[in-house]
Write a structure and sequence with these properties.
Elements: E1 16-18, H1 19-26, H2 30-38, E2 45-47, E3 50-54, H3 55-67
Antiparallel strand pairs: 1-3, 2-3
């Protein structure tokens, strides 16, 4: 039996992406992504201090974006 551990990156695990990679794909700031997490729109999990998202979580979030559930009502001059 080989005593060395097989090293795999988290991205190599099917269905899991690091939050920083997904943030770059979305093209949003760290603050915006933090707000999505705080509001419960994007579900993440922590592995040894690094945040990850699953494909299912991404699909749910993108479905909410497409449906308009995340849109704010117009206010001020736009109302």
């Amino acid at each position: 039996m080989n005593s060395k551990f097989t090293q795999t990156t988290p991205e190599a695990v099917a269905g899991i992406t690091s939050l920083s990679v997904y943030r770059r794909q979305l093209g949003v700031s760290k603050t915006t992504l933090w707000r999505y997490r705080r509001n419960g729109w994007l579900k993440c999990f922590n592995v040894l201090g690094k945040l990850f998202v699953t494909r299912e979580s991404i699909a749910e979030f993108e479905a909410m974006m497409r449906s308009g559930k995340l849109a704010k009502e117009p206010h001020g001059c736009a109302a």
